[in-house]
């Protein structure tokens, strides 16, 4: 069977990698965790330590086979970000602050309206940048060569 792409992709994501979320539907309802990965092509997220399933892996070259416990993706509609003030799940909105900057704020019935900061983990890359090959001229060397 495999995975299939979502019919309607979310264009503006409000849930980011590193957010503290609560699962609001499913077998782990009420549990909290951190977003480990966002799969935008499927409208799904992986929550660290939640929605655990058994995966049967066949033995192959370089790895052992067996039954492993892995985190399965959840649909993004089944999780909500936790309000940092109240500790309850809430929706996210964007507001312009007095200084003109745009910030994420909590909204909804249980929300306090406080600012939800962007996770610090977003400042780090998941994969390191590839090193520049030496045969490619740097910008200064390019100007000198011309």
Features:
146 residues, SH3 type barrels, 1 helix, mainly beta, two-stranded antiparallel ribbon, seven-stranded antiparallel sheet
Describe the structure.
The chain has 146 residues and is mainly beta. It has a single domain (20-127), classed as Roll (SH3 type barrels), CATH 2.30.30.30. It contains 1 helix and 9 strands; from the N terminus they run βββββββββα. The chain has one helix at residues 139-145; strands at 20-23, 32-39, 44-47, 52-57, 66-71, 74-75, 79-82, 89-96, 102-107. The strands form 2 sheets. The protein has a 7-stranded antiparallel beta sheet with strand order 6-3-2-1-7-8-9, with no helix packed on it. Strands 4-5 form a two-stranded antiparallel sheet. β8 and β9 (102-107) form a beta hairpin. The longest helix is centred in the last third of the chain and has 7 residues, at 139-145.
Summarize the structure.
The protein has 146 residues and is mostly beta strands. It has one helix and nine strands, in the order E-E-E-E-E-E-E-E-E-H.
Strand and helix map with partners:
Blueprint: E1 20-23, E2 32-39, E3 44-47, E4 52-57, E5 66-71, E6 74-75, E7 79-82, E8 89-96, E9 102-107, H1 139-145
Antiparallel strand pairs: 1-2, 1-7, 2-3, 3-6, 4-5, 7-8, 8-9
Domain KOW: 14-41
Protein name: KOW domain-containing protein
Keywords: Ribonucleoprotein, Ribosomal protein
């Amino acid at each position: 069977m495999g995975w299939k792409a979502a019919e309607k992709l979310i264009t503006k994501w409000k849930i980011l990698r590193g957010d503290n979320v609560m699962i609001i539907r499913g077998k782990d309802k009420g549990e909290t965790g951190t977003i480990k990965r966002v799969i935008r092509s499927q409208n799904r997220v992986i929550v660290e330590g939640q929605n655990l399933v058994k995966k049967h892996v066949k033995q192959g070259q370089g790895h052992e086979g067996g039954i492993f416990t892995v985190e399965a993706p959840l649909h993004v509609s089944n999780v909500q970000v936790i309000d940092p003030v109240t500790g309850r799940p809430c929706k996210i909105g964007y507001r312009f602050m007095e200084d003109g900057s745009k910030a994420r704020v909590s909204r909804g019935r249980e929300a306090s309206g406080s600012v939800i900061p962007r996770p610090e983990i977003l400042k780090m890359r998941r994969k390191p940048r590839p090193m520049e090959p030496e045969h490619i001229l740097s910008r200064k060397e390019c100007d000198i060569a011309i």
